[in-house]
């Protein structure tokens, strides 16, 4: 690590809810809305944005825990802002508070944990599993 992620560091990602991000079971009774797995993906991306400036070129972060409440529906066409704020950092483990807002309201809030890893060591672990 270049430096330990600082408490209060923020990462942010914005996106528009497009067709590929909506639930797969929308029909004439169930309106099309942002799917939770996509929301989680964007929240994780915001968390990476908060931590990445502290990493060496051979380091990345991987998600190890997420606890998020998806609080409100967001229809296609709405702009969503996802933010992650570092709340604790100890050695290679970083904890972040995450939240997302659409154009009207808070739509998600929770906690996310990421671990800083060295790419080469991680790749060796993956490779060992693929040989089995």
How would you sum up this structure, described in words?
The chain is α+β, with helices and mostly antiparallel strands and 132 residues long. It has a single domain, classed as Hotdog Thioesterase (Thiol Ester Dehydrase, Chain A), CATH 3.10.129. 21% of the residues lie in helices and 40% in strands. It contains two helices and five strands. It has helices at 36-51, 119-130; strands spanning 10-16, 59-70, 79-90, 93-101, 106-118. A five-stranded antiparallel sheet has the order 1-3-4-5-2. A hairpin with a 4-residue loop joins strand 4 (93-101) and strand 5 (106-118). It is globular, with a radius of gyration of 17 Å. The protein starts with 9 loop residues before the first strand and ends with a helix. The model has no long low-confidence stretch (mean pLDDT 97).
How does the SSE layout of this entry go?
Elements: E1 10-16, H1 36-51, E2 59-70, E3 79-90, E4 93-101, E5 106-118, H2 119-130
Antiparallel strand pairs: 1-3, 2-5, 3-4, 4-5
